[in-house]
Structure formats: C-alpha cells, structure tokens
C-alpha cells in the first residue's frame, strides 16, 4: 500500500499502534510541484478496509494506492 499525505505526523502516530512496519519518504509532486510525504506498507488483502479508514480519518485528501505483491522477502510476518 502506498499513501501520499500532508498529514503525516498524525497518521504515523495512528499507524505506530498497527502491527506492520511502515516507511515514510519525503517526496514532491511533479505535476503540482508540492511537497508531500509517501508512506509505504506491505499488508494483507483483508487489512485494506481497516487501514483505509485509519488513513482517511487522519487525512480525507490522502491518495491511497494498493498493489498486488507476488513475492516478499525479509522481515515480514504474515498473520492468518
């Protein structure tokens, strides 16, 4: 899941209580030339609805993109 937001501090505070790791990057939009933050998470399909609610509660203008991942390697714990 990739999230673009300008309300990063509030969102990260909420995501710290969530069980998955999150990585945040400073970024800049090419079209609008505005500073924003990109948050990257690897999640399971059944978590999308809950995370979408958490994200949109922090920033109603957040851009959220979900991609299918065929392979993960490293420190990722899959919960069933």
From TrEMBL:
Compartment list: Cell membrane
Top-rank taxon: Bacteria
Segments forming domain DUF2179: 20-69
CDD domains, sorted: YitT_C_like (cd16379)
One GO cellular component, as annotated: plasma membrane
Membrane topology of this protein: Multi-pass membrane protein
Keyword S-adenosyl-L-methionine tagged: no
Keyword terms, alphabetized: Cell membrane, Membrane, Transmembrane, Transmembrane helix
A Pfam short name: DUF2179
Chief location: membrane
Protein name per UniProt: DUF2179 domain-containing protein
